[in-house]
Structures are given as structure tokens and as C-alpha cells.
Amino acid sequence: MNKLDTETVYEFYANAWGVRQRREERKSRVRGKWIYYHPKAINDFLGNPYPNQEELCTYLRMKSNPHKFDSNTVAYTLCIPDHTFHRGPRGQPKRIQRKDMCTLAQVWLTFMLANITPSEHVSDLNMQHYNLLFTLTQDEMTVNVTRVIFDEIQKFLDMEINQLKGRRRGALGFPALITALCKAQGVVVDVKAKIRPPINKSYIEKNYTNPDEHPEAIKQPPLKPAIPPSPRKKEMESHLMKNLWHIQKHQTSNHRALLQIFQGLYILSPQAIPTLGCTLNISLNILIGMWTGHIL
């Protein structure tokens, strides 16, 4: 189902609020019909993915004792090389940033947050969520998704009232699943609101491929072909080079002329022309200062 009925979802959660039946009897009332949402009902609706509901899956057995999860193995599986947990003040693993996850982990994370454990906070994962994500990626481990979904629905039902705003905190989860459950159990639904796009290959490549995972495999943008210079540009460059060469030769000639002047002035001395000695010394000092840049 690619659409949902928001009014049906609101009625489901409103009428299930405060209900405290046994797990196998959990239900809500929607438009005059009882809607069962216990694990077996969800399992039957999803096509019986976990036949033996009485047997605890690997995740639920290990969830009761988080130390059974090896943190190094979890980080090695979920993170790209040279990245790991963000740790707490005592060094304990605390969170994994989404940007530090490999592509496979990000794909499973998207599936998990959309279908198993809805959450508005998707930039990182706490211990409970990254342990579930790790279990989902392991072939030898089992996850009873119907039981996890049921527990998550109960969390939404048990959300505390926000005393400041007089309403529950957070959004309601599983809107598409609840709409489909109600429809399958005889409720007439009016599906109008669209859900997120499907998680397919193009969606994954666009949003969840981590470029830091295989940097050598990142395609470089094609280089633009070099544009050959125009004849006019070549002519201008040639003219510019000729002018620069002429200026250099002119400066060299000026330098030689100044040297000749300085040598001539040096030959003249106060003894040869006593009356001009003071004037010549001043003039020589001025010329030398101008040549070395000390007089402007």
C-alpha cells in the first residue's frame, strides 16, 4: 500500500490508548470494528515471516543482556574503516553516527526506521537500535520483526502526555501498516496521504551510498576538453612578449648609462676642482640615493 488513511490511524491509537489486555488479545476499535494488532495478527498479515511466535529470536534473547553483543564486531560490521562508536564519559559505546556507517548498514537502517522501529531521529543510533541493526545484517541471527513491531506500537500507545502542550510527544508510527491492518479486518479506509518513495536501487544510490567507504572507486568528473587558442590570442601574446623584451633591453641600457655617469663623477675630485667639491659631493650622494631607491 503506497497511501494511508490518517483518520483511521488516529482512531486506532485513540481507542487503543489505555487498553491493558494480555499480549495475545491486544486490539483497538476503529469505526465499529475490532482491530487486532497482537504479534500473531501482525505475523499473519505480513505472510507469516516468523512461524513459531513462542520461540524467542536471537535479537530478543540478546536484548535482555546487551553485553552479549560484541561491540568491536558490531562496529566492524556497521562502520566504514577507521570509524567506530562515539563513546560516553567512561569509554562505553554510546552511539553510531549515520555518516560513519557503510552503505549496506545505511540501507538496512533505512528499512529498519521505515518499517520496524520508526524514529524521527535518524542522524545516529543508540545502543538498542544499532544492536538490532547489527542483528538484521547477520544471516545466522534471527529477528522476530512482528514482535518488534508490536513492542514499538505499544511504545507509541504508552507515550507520556506533554504537560506543557497537553499532547503526546512524538509522531505516530506505522501509519501504512495500521491502515492496511484495518482494511484487511473489514474497515473501509479512505487512502489519500502518500508515503515515502520505495527503497529501490536508484533511491539507495542517490541517498545512501557512503563515498568514504571506497574512495578509490569514486568516479572523477570528466575533464573538459582544452579549447585551442584563437589566432588573435596568439598574436596578442607574441606582441606582449616583444614589448616585455624591449622594456628589458631598455632598462639594461639605462643601467649601463648610469654606471658611466657614476664613474665619471667618481673621477672628478675636490682637489681637481676645489670650488665645486661640495657641490659634486652633494650631487653624487643624490644620484646614488636615487639609483638605490633611498631618495624619491
Task: Describe this structure as you would to a colleague.
The chain is mostly helical and 296 residues long. It has a domain at 256-296. 47% of the residues lie in helices and 8% in strands. The protein has helices at 6-16, 39-45, 58-63, 71-78, 103-115, 127-136, 145-157, 175-184, 201-207, 231-267, 277-292, and strands at residues 3-4, 27-30, 33-36, 86-87, 93-97, 124-125, 161-162, 167-168, 193-194. Strand 2 (27-30) and strand 3 (33-36) form a beta hairpin. Helix 2 (39-45) crosses helix 7 (145-157) and helix 10 (231-267) packs antiparallel against helix 11 (277-292). The radius of gyration is 40 Å and the shape is elongated.
Please give a quick description of this structure.
By secondary structure, the chain is mostly helical. The chain has helices at 6-16, 39-45, 58-63, 71-78, 103-115, 127-136, 145-157, 175-184, 201-207, 231-267, 277-292, and strands at residues 3-4, 27-30, 33-36, 86-87, 93-97, 124-125, 161-162, 167-168, 193-194. It has a domain at 256-296.
Could you give the topology of this structure?
Layout: E1 3-4, H1 6-16, E2 27-30, E3 33-36, H2 39-45, H3 58-63, H4 71-78, E4 86-87, E5 93-97, H5 103-115, E6 124-125, H6 127-136, H7 145-157, E7 161-162, E8 167-168, H8 175-184, E9 193-194, H9 201-207, H10 231-267, H11 277-292
Antiparallel strand pairs: 1-9, 2-3, 4-5, 5-6, 7-8
Strand content: 5-15%
- N-to-C span: 86 Å
Helix content: 40-55%
Gyration radius, in Å:
40 Å
Q: What is the 3D form? A: elongated
Give the strand order of the largest sheet, numbering strands 1, 2, ... along the chain. Answer: 4-5-6
The helix-strand sequence is: EHEEHHHEEHEHHEEHEHHH
What does the average pLDDT come to? 78
Helix-strand makeup class: mainly alpha
The low-confidence runs, each spanning 5 or more residues with pLDDT under 50, are 216-220, 291-296
Tell me the number of helical segments per DSSP (H or I, 4 or more residues long).
11
Count the beta strands: 9
Major sheet characteristics:
3 strands, antiparallel
